[in-house]
Amino acid sequence: MVLAQLGGSISRALQQMSNATVIDEKVLNECLNEITRALLQSDVQFKLVRDMQTNIKKIVNLEDLAAGHNKRKIIQQAVFNELCKILDAGKPSFTPKKGKPSVVMFVGLQGSGKTTTCTKYAYYHQKKGWKPALVCADTFRAGAFDQLKQNATKAKIPFYGSYMESDPVKIAVDGVDRFKKENCDLIIVDTSGRHKQEAALFEEMRQKPDLVIFVMDSSIGQAAFDQAQAFKQSVAVGAVIVTKMDGHAKGGGALSAVAATKSPVIFIGTGEHMDEFEVFDVKPFVSRLLGMGDWSGFMDKIHEVVPMDQQPELLQKLSEGNFTLRIMYEQFQNILKMGPISQVFSMLPGFSAELMPKGREKESQAKIKRYMTMMDSMTNEELDSSNPKIMNESRIMRIARGSGRQVREVMEMLEEYKRLAKIWSKMKGLKFPKKGDMSAL
Ligand code: GDP
């Protein structure tokens, strides 16, 4: 089950339960069975799912919950905690720091998405102000250097490799030395995907890598447990990145299986493009899966794209519940800069990846651009009003004429505005959590 579907099934099960007039044993069981089914379909190990079900039942003792207790909230919290427990594998062995040179070595089987992920990892950090560099120490696969070179060039990231040299150790050492001299703070070494070579590479490099990241394809589901164990035995894996979470049914199984080897997942790959890459943090991830939004992911994106001086103002306006057409316009501008919009929307409570389906981004982007053209024909009064009633017939006709669009389309855009305004109005007074602080959930 692709993640959006898994999340959809779990949140639907919780929703159905809250719709029931009385939450009794039968309703709870139905809800838990639904969640169990979704997790098993996603290839999460049977024992983990069974333990989770038992634990939730233990925590949520319906008879002990006096009337007035918010059962729905208690159950949702229990599901949240149990899912977090399944996915939590602690902290990575090392976290690179901006401005301090670190060497990060990538290992993983061929085809897992290693080379693509090296570039995504570099690009992610580059956008946050780091100075990353890529070294291709894969001398085994013909074309590996070309692939890395191509990716790196596209992302404007310095790279190093050789067509002639056959010794990966030599390339790795030379590359690391060179980029250290150039003051790069994140030197990423891509390897060939053969256990023996990687173990030797690790041993023989003059400067041992600070962190070894194991890259794994999520399509193998719970078999990820054996693969992660095998790699851990040959090289000191400090963190894991799970790729292809966008297209495979078994993503949940892979994530939970990796966690069971006590290897923390730090990022997930959600597509072939450079920016289809997300930080993996257990609590925000589960929160998003349950349709509760992912404030830290959203804030991360806001910090990435909204100019620093506009951030406090935007958050202030949103928390006042004043969602005007101008805010919608500015947010559309930001969304167009943010990259895959399905990713951004899925972090907001009230939106789901199902609303902005993957693969239909082009359509959604075109729609946003169309809306923005119409808003360009609006007056300041219209843009700054938070009262949709001022949009009378003559104004709508004028906007349609001004933007060369149909009246029907202007009305559709205003409907979308009302829908968004309604969602945001629920957040009135909400304290936006600071980065990483999920206590407001
Ligand atoms: P390597 O052999 O491990 O270096 O793997 P590559 O980086 O060459 O990737 C193998 C294939 O997987 C390529 O076609 C990539 O575009 C694709 N790929 C990598 N990561 C992802 C991902 O997160 N999602 C999807 N859909 N494809 C990916």
UniProtKB/TrEMBL annotation:
<feature type="domain" description="SRP54-type proteins GTP-binding">
    <location>
        <begin position="264"/>
        <end position="277"/>
    </location>
</feature>
<keyword id="KW-0256">Endoplasmic reticulum</keyword>
<dbReference type="InterPro" id="IPR003593">
    <property type="entry name" value="AAA+_ATPase"/>
</dbReference>
<protein>
    <recommendedName>
        <fullName>Signal recognition particle 54 kDa protein</fullName>
    </recommendedName>
</protein>
<dbReference type="Pfam" id="PF02881">
    <property type="entry name" value="SRP54_N"/>
</dbReference>
<comment type="similarity">
    <text>Belongs to the GTP-binding SRP family. SRP54 subfamily.</text>
</comment>
<dbReference type="InterPro" id="IPR013822">
    <property type="entry name" value="Signal_recog_particl_SRP54_hlx"/>
</dbReference>
<keyword id="KW-0342">GTP-binding</keyword>
<keyword id="KW-0733">Signal recognition particle</keyword>
<dbReference type="InterPro" id="IPR006325">
    <property type="entry name" value="SRP54_euk"/>
</dbReference>
<dbReference type="Pfam" id="PF00448">
    <property type="entry name" value="SRP54"/>
</dbReference>
<dbReference type="InterPro" id="IPR004125">
    <property type="entry name" value="Signal_recog_particle_SRP54_M"/>
</dbReference>
<dbReference type="InterPro" id="IPR027417">
    <property type="entry name" value="P-loop_NTPase"/>
</dbReference>
<dbReference type="InterPro" id="IPR000897">
    <property type="entry name" value="SRP54_GTPase_dom"/>
</dbReference>
<dbReference type="Pfam" id="PF02978">
    <property type="entry name" value="SRP_SPB"/>
</dbReference>
<keyword id="KW-0694">RNA-binding</keyword>
<dbReference type="InterPro" id="IPR036891">
    <property type="entry name" value="Signal_recog_part_SRP54_M_sf"/>
</dbReference>
<dbReference type="InterPro" id="IPR022941">
    <property type="entry name" value="SRP54"/>
</dbReference>
<comment type="subunit">
    <text>Component of a signal recognition particle (SRP) complex that consists of a 7SL RNA molecule of 300 nucleotides and six protein subunits: SRP72, SRP68, SRP54, SRP19, SRP14 and SRP9.</text>
</comment>
<keyword id="KW-0547">Nucleotide-binding</keyword>
<keyword id="KW-0963">Cytoplasm</keyword>
<dbReference type="InterPro" id="IPR042101">
    <property type="entry name" value="SRP54_N_sf"/>
</dbReference>
<keyword id="KW-0687">Ribonucleoprotein</keyword>
<dbReference type="InterPro" id="IPR036225">
    <property type="entry name" value="SRP/SRP_N"/>
</dbReference>
<keyword id="KW-0378">Hydrolase</keyword>
<comment type="function">
    <text>Component of the signal recognition particle (SRP) complex, a ribonucleoprotein complex that mediates the cotranslational targeting of secretory and membrane proteins to the endoplasmic reticulum (ER). As part of the SRP complex, associates with the SRP receptor (SR) component SRPRA to target secretory proteins to the endoplasmic reticulum membrane. Binds to the signal sequence of presecretory proteins when they emerge from the ribosomes. Displays basal GTPase activity, and stimulates reciprocal GTPase activation of the SR subunit SRPRA.</text>
</comment>
